[in-house]
Amino acid sequence: MADEGNLHLQKLVNQFLQSLIANWDEELVFLTESLPTNHWFITDQPFFSKYGLTFSRFESTASNLHQLVESFLELLPYPDAVNGQPRNVEEPESWFNEFKTAINERHPKCTPQSLDESLAPILGCCVSKMILIILSAHHTDGDSSQAADVSDELKSDSALKKNIQSMCISKVELEATTVSWIIAVFQNNLEKAVKKTHFNPLLDAYASRALLYWSKVVGLLSMRAEDEIISIFRQYLNEQKNPQSISAPAMFYFAALRYVRVTPQNQEKYLNFFLPYLQHQHRKTPDSVISSLLLTLCNVFRQCDFVNTDDKTLVLKLAEINELLKRLAEKKKLLKPVKKQVYITNICFLLRAPQGLFRTLAPFLEKRCISHLDESDKCEQCLDMLIYLLQGTYDPFLSFFQLKVYDKNKRKNVQFYSKNAQDQLPKDERRKSQFNNEDGAGGAGGASAASAHRIDNVDDLLFLADIDWTSRIRHQESEHDIQDRIKHLFKALVRKNVLKLMRSTRHWKKLIFVMTKLMAQDLEYGMSVLLPQLIDSKRGGPLTMELALDVISEMLRPNGTFNKYHAMSKTTLDTLTGVLPAILDECEAAIGNSRLHKRETPLLLHYDGHYIERYRISADPTNREPSIEDFNAVLRINMEDAMKEKAVQSAESGQVLDEEEKEIYDEEKGLLDDIQYKQIRDAQLLSLSFLQNDVLGAKILQLRQKHRGYDDIELAVKNNKGAKKEYLNVLRACIRCILSLRPNGVLTDCGVKNLTYIGRYLLHQDYEVVLATYAVLRNIVKQEKMLLSSILTGLTNYLLQFYIHRAPCIAILIQTISGLVSTFIESHSIKEILRDRGIVDDLCFAFNRLDALAFAFFCHTNLYVRYSCINLTLSVAKGLKIIIAHYFADQSPEEQQRQLTFPASLGNLFQLYSADIIKRARRKYFIHRDNMDKTSEPFDQYFNEHYIQTVENISHEGILKMLLVQDDYTPAYACVDAIVEKIESLCLDGSIYFRFLRVDSCQEILLQENWLGVDEQSKQSEILQSMCVALVCLVGFSDNGMDDVGFYDSIWKQLERFSHVDDVQLVHTVLYALQSAHFTRVANVYESLDAW
Questions:
Q1: What share of the chain is helix, strand, coil (3-state, %, to 5)?
Q2: Would you tell me which of 314, 378, 475, 1048 could form a disulfide with 1088, CB atoms 3.0–4.6 Å apart?
Q3: What phi, psi does 1019 have (nearest 5°)?
Q4: For the chain, first and last CA: distance in Å?
């Protein structure tokens, strides 16, 4: 059986090599002198991740591990010998030469010399990462030797308890020869890096990645071979140690040691190893060497445990280390980031030191941290120190080996140097999700065929260590000591001047983490004593309220990690849920819609998760590994931070921007200055974005509205003497907090008296409040399918409270509803939606009502409203396509089949009959052209010829485009008339769906006061025109829910109020509507008009 497993393993290795060769593209062979502008590292490609996961799931036995590791090591052209035994790399039968031959066959034009140069660093990167994946993989005792489909198991956080004991390297001991081989390979890579042997920019990047992976592999090997590793590094470092300094190459050696495993059994060995270099403090030692030493010591100390040490010799050594760190901090010429690293290392040391040394921590913090919280340039340094303090008992070793695997949403075009997933997109696509209504993006594909046992589904898999919210500052402390320390730190952090200094985005996020960790030290005390002090506006202020809300958001985030470690009582949750409406009431009085009035400018909504995720704590701030992609990044940690200290000033706003914000600002400014779009008006951009699918035009329109929004809110606050601008950030924090608390009254109660209803914030003057509210609603619908129906009902009822002259408000609400429907359909599978009959029934009613809403508001002549209706129609059509069969569940089987022959929705009707509708509209327009605005102009032959030509070759999208931007041959009201005729025809044929749509659109919307009862202050031409277009529907349907004399009288009475308006177009629209009346209404229309 074991032999069969080994044969299967060898087969998988061969298939991996074939895939590796297949993905070895020309960039890896035909090297250029400059960096490639777009390069996707071969170790980041999906095929590599899939094979890595497959190999990592094989049973952790000595034979499997030995076979896998040595198979990959055989690919390397170095070293020439292992333990004195030659490897015969130059022989034709060697794995390396066979691989080189295969690459040569794939790229016949490449020269052997170029292959010799490129293969070593790239293969080194591939081999090192694969061995790292295998050795750091986690296993249970019942692993399958065949590594069957484990994608479901991998997706479950609870399926595998990840700890050091479950790692492959802990379960299986590598053979001494294999360990020596790996160490020899590592030394080869390290020595090349120290010598700074540069071949080519791309190859140097691969070599740097390889050295990072080999350093992590050596860190894993240190769990069993620490003596050999310490001996090797002692020799390296002693060569760099001289009487005056420690030379610059030492930074490579210290950095390569940052991943070693320290345990109570070997901690004294590492202490004795590092002590001489810490003692060797000289002015000429470069800061880079000191930084590298401190970063490694920080990781070492965080794994140590000297708390119960009573060995006097060891205690004296520990006291000496403490004094050495203090002395190092006094050096005047140290760079600020390096000095901060000294303080952090000292904190980590004292947290694990004996009780006597631990007592010095409090005065150390007071002197080096708390007393500097009122200095702007030291705020971030103090927060970083507190973060390491509050992570006290956390062991970071597992976080060193986080495994990033292929993310289906990652684009293939990856920037050469990148720090995060967003940076890996080309610049024109970066932050693209913020300008799309869709949350996701298409991913790259093309993984090579592998074994049937490989993992075929690794969507969004990341082995990321959760934040340990249970870590304490110190083990086994008394409750009194914990609460005293919490109280002292809390008091220092919430001072008004301190909070003002920390309000920048970068500082605020760290402050939220510190405050949340502070609460987690003693949750009951934090929730009962500390949180009420933050929330109370009399004891605190807007800044403390904002901080409290962001802390609550983090603790109760549905997809966060805090809930995994701390369970809150129902009483506490109810208390927190009740707090939010109370704060919203304060914000409403200070800066809400009742104070500033509702928005009067239109918006093109888009999803931007940045507004709700900007302060989310997604990873442990002490864990730098996710941002480290190569060994050079390790060396740059504090050196790069020193360069970032110079904040960039925005010349226009005077606002201090960090690096990310500055990049975004420059990108946005470049787009706004695009000469092709600068002269185009907003309305034209909106039309182009739909008619020509102009993504860039839509993006520019959104940016215009964003930048204009900042001016609008400033002006609104300035013009309102009672407004309190300091509450604006509190309101934004409230919106973010809704995502975590989800109070029913805020989400669903759209009553006039409820001033905290979430729909009101979609109409706020502040651009960020609107976008944040929209993002919150979409996330709620994405996470909880049960809430969609009630949220849609609330928003629809709220929308119908507005008179039609509030076009900006109406457009925003319709866009929101459309976005929620789209998000729901994309986030939940069809099976998941149809599983619950109650949800389906609610959605059938909601979607039918939304279709009627869209149809009614197509009568509105405002461009943004019609654009929003188009999106809503398309979204509802997708939803009804899924559930339409259930819409007729109460009918007989025969009737159900008959109903399914009709269009399933308004959008489906447009798709099926677009050409027919347009042709009919143009014919009716041609017949009634004497009633149009060209009455005074004779229709020439050109009009007739062009009319006939434009009717031909109409796509199914034609009617949507006509409804958005009418042309000279098809006015919008003619289109509406043709749609009315088509719906009337379907109703006559027996369509139940369109019968309801016909009555709902007229009776619930068009016949209401908000359409026909617009007051005389609303004399804009587009509002009056909307009323006239609505008349087409009201008299065009045979049944609109009302057919008495009073109905017709109300129309003439309303129209008479605007008879003084000198607009021929309005008169002609009314005449067109009357001539398009359904034949059953003609007599009543005539009698009523005659009587009037």
A1: 65, 0, 35
A2: 1048
A3: -110, 15
A4: 97
